[in-house]
Amino acid sequence: MKKIFITVLKVFGAIVLILVTAIFVLLIATPFVNDHVAKKTLEELVELPFPENTEYIESVCNAGKIIGCGNGMQYFGAILIKSELSQEELEAYYSNYAEHDWECVVGNQVGSNICVDGGQPVPLSFATDVEGDDYFIVYSWGSNDTIFDDLDIRGH
Q1: Are the CB atoms for 156 and 35 separated by under 8 Å?
Q2: pTM
Q3: What pLDDT is attached to residue 141?
């Protein structure tokens, strides 16, 4: 009877150790997975062909609670371009690559701080000194419908 009790304790201890390790690994992996989703969102933008008379300057991405209230992860990727085209021409060009209205959004970039959706500030900025009215931001919001979306503390 004593051997059975010791065996049960060992099995129970092993199960607890496996569960604690799994939770620990899951919590450690979560930010890496979500950062990867933000990077993929950015990569999809960077891989798009640029219109004529347009120059790629730099890019940024982030995962976390970027704008708005409440809980939820957001995945943001943005490129800074310099173009001789107007904002309307750029919007028409990039609309060919957008499947949803939150993809390939074009805005005029004023200064290095990033603002989206009609002027809402984002806790990101470009390193480039933006001077002139020929700089534009093209940004997209990504998505990740996995458990990692809910586990990341940056989304709360």
Answers
A1: no
A2: 0.85
A3: 96
